Amino acid sequence: xxxxxxxxxxxxxxxxxxxxxxxxxxxxxxxxxxxxxxxxxxxxxxxxxxxxxxxxxxxxxxxxxxxxxxxxxxxxxxxxxxxxxxxxxxxxxxxxxxxxxxxxxxxxxxxxxxxxxxxxxxxxxxxxxxxxxxxxxxxxxxxxxxxxxxxxxxxxxxxxxxxxxxxxxxxxxxxxxxxxxxxxxxxxxxxxxxxxxxxxxxxxxxxxxxxxxxxxxxxxxxxxxxxxxxxxxxxxxxxxxxxxxxxxxxxxxxxxxxxxxxxxxxxxxxxxxxxxxxxxxxxxxxxxxxxxxxxxxxxxxxxxxxxxxxxxxxxxxxxxxxxxxxxxxxxxxxxxxxxxxxxxxxxxxxxxxxxxxxxxxxxxxxxxxxxxxxxxxxxxxxxxxxxxxxxxxxxxxxxxxxxx
Length: 404
Ligand SMILES: *Cc1c(COP(=O)(O)O)cnc(C)c1O
Fold this sequence. Notes:
This protein has helices spanning 13-25, 32-45, 56-66, 84-91, 110-115, 136-144, 203-213, 253-263, 266-283, 315-318, 322-331, 347-353, 361-369, 381-394, and strands at 49-53, 74-77, 95-98, 121-127, 149-153, 161-164, 167-170, 179-183, 196-200, 217-218, 241-242, 290-291, 309-313, 370-373. It is α/β, with parallel strands linked by helices. The protein folds into 2 domains: 13-224 and 238-263, Type I PLP-dependent aspartate aminotransferase-like (Major domain) (Aspartate Aminotransferase, domain 2), CATH 3.40.640.10; 266-395, Alpha-Beta Complex (Aspartate Aminotransferase, domain 1), CATH 3.90.1150.10. The protein has a 7-stranded mixed beta sheet, sandwiched between helices. A hairpin with a 2-residue loop joins strand 6 (161-164) and strand 7. Bound molecules: pyridoxal-5'-phosphate. Pyridoxal-5'-phosphate binds at residues 55-57, 81-82, 84-85, 127, 153, 155-156, 183, 185, 196.
């Protein structure tokens, strides 16, 4: 039996044509497709600048550098996320720290953020868990009143929108994040194989990120400092200057060609994901042991770009462990995943910063109960029916002594 994975890309003949066209064009690394993809993405989300990079981890690192976060600074994020949202702070010598999640949306809780604040906090990385956006207006209010920078980790939310005070905003194109980061890893809502994007309306952040993406070097005569030689007559066509310590975080034309093609199907992907989520919610609604995902704002039901379908399961009442349940699902050909282990409880974080259990009780409680079921655009109705039926069967408690 084929295993249904928890997430999977959707590749079309047009994606494949785009790659072969790119190969024939002769451009493999940074060529015209990179800029075209950046412009199309910026237009799509409604941002002034988009900087495409090799993955979202690199984009988060560049966001830290662009905001000049460094040693002595603290960066708060949500523990319910992938490692990169916190690691990026450590990359630049800052201290990654954590505030707890809101138990409804599983995203960074503005009240907990406020309570965790310390004078050295210089940036906050808010994560749009499963595709539901963090409460960005409330978070930006807490962060900006204290002069810090708001970075939105929207790796789960490419293509998403949300409502605030009767108006609709696009992830990456609203006023409550200074920089927003997207991932195009294959399980995410659109893919370039590996890939990431940093978007911002801030010219300085965009220029820094663009420069640091490629070794901090420039070939633009306008920006030459003159510190590297004896004058303009020395600067032939070979000439370039390195102004900052950067990296090779470039993305290839091949990847951007896939990205341009995938972008044309992003609405189709998100609509399908929303339909699947609604069907899951309906199918699993009446099971006491299962808590289906909830939206902080019910108006976002038609706007959210779901990346994950994460339920909470009361394993105790069922008398089975999560491992046993995952094994039973796997026996029925159904992949499932646990997203995420709270980052502050990772061995490196415990060792490096002394973080322990109890630091973020809501995130830790979610972790003991969470399970993500398969969600991707090509999940067939029959496959989803099979997943719902199997889950219902496994999550209905055995008849107990109470019945005798
Ligand atoms: C996937 C993911 C990342 C990292 O993205 P890469 O492109 O794999 O580097 C960061 N944050 C979150 C929340 C993610 O889901």
